[in-house]
Amino acid sequence: MQSEVDPHQPPSAKADSQASSAETGWLQVLGPGILVAATGVGAGDLAGGALAGALLKVTVLWVVLVGALLKYVLCEGLARWQLSTRTSLTDGVFRSTPAIVRYLFLAYLAVWSFCIGGMLMSACGECAQAILPIGEPAFGRIVHGCLHSVAAIVLVRLGGFWLFERLMAVCIGLMFVTVLVVAMLSAPEWLDVIRGLLIPKIPHADGKGVAWTLTLMAGVGGTVTMLCYGNWIREKGRLDAASLKACRIDLAAGYLMTAMFGIGMVILGSRLPVDPSLKGANLITRLADDMQNSLPTFGVFAGWMFRFGAWGAVFSSLLGVWQSVPALIAQMLPGQGDAKFDSLSPGRTYFVVLILLGTVPALCLPYSLAYVQKTAGVTGALFLPMFALSLLVLPATNLARQSGFRNGRGSALILILTLGLFGVLAVQKLSTLFP
What we know:
Blueprint: H1 11-22, H2 26-40, H3 43-56, H4 61-85, H5 89-95, H6 99-131, H7 137-185, H8 190-198, H9 209-218, H10 229-235, H11 244-271, H12 280-294, H13 299-332, H14 337-341, H15 348-359, H16 370-393, H17 398-403, H18 409-433
């Protein structure tokens, strides 16, 4: 497909667009979906799958498939809106709502960015320290976390989208192979696995079954980072409705991989001793140690393989957030809108936000991240019902009517279900933050 190049773009942006258009092969088609999968699966998601597996066993594997389907529908709706209207989803919301909505969402995004930035730096530090120790564990976690953040800034600043996309493909390949191989080495009961995938059931689990089911469902495929898909498809030259089929293919591939990650982690959690008091990267590194002692064969191999896979998961998430979130924030600032959306060339605001994102959250590293993790979980849970609600109400706007954007009956039904399920989860998460 020959993509359209905006004549008003600066020369560097034109070159990037032409390079994207000339690219062929699987990375051209599946690239944005791979980026969604690699960014959306981090230490929290892997740990959440392991904890759910330990508590609910493989009877809830169907939940992973449902979660991936719901996230697919949300991202597909974002792509349909953007390709139909040539505006970002957030700009469409801001156009049809009072100005205060923009500022409230920017404040929300600032809180989320600080919390997720601190979590990702800490997670990278924890996983890297487990592979290459530097001094005491707490000191090594801080050093590794800062080094990973600096490395991500340099890669994003100097390597451009071409290098970013390929690094993410390597990381997700490492994650994919690791989780699946280690899950198979754990020797699960495959008949139970098949039942868990095909027969919906929610265990009671001392009254925690429903809460853990919703948490597992929401943890499949990220939250706020799904908005970044809009920028990534523009980088691939997908500018109009003719590109919707390619978006549906790469999203299906990306969320299929995401679902397989989740299934693998639930299986591992059901087979290994899991300490529910641990969270995030702490739990992931403990799982690697447990593999060496608990798996019947290849325990040492599986443990080290899982350490590298976990590192790939958290570093790809950090790299994806560092590359994409500054662009989201820059586009959402007042006065930017379509002018910023039409240019692929990052401006000064982008780099200022990138530096802030890569440095300020480091203030969290010396301290316990328990409250930061909880706040990040709440902000992420709040985003999902907002996303679904936006896609449900946008068809009624003038821009949607002019462009022909609408939701089919199936999409609308799934969006309503998504709004209800994740709305309940958001209320539950808020109650834990403000008891």
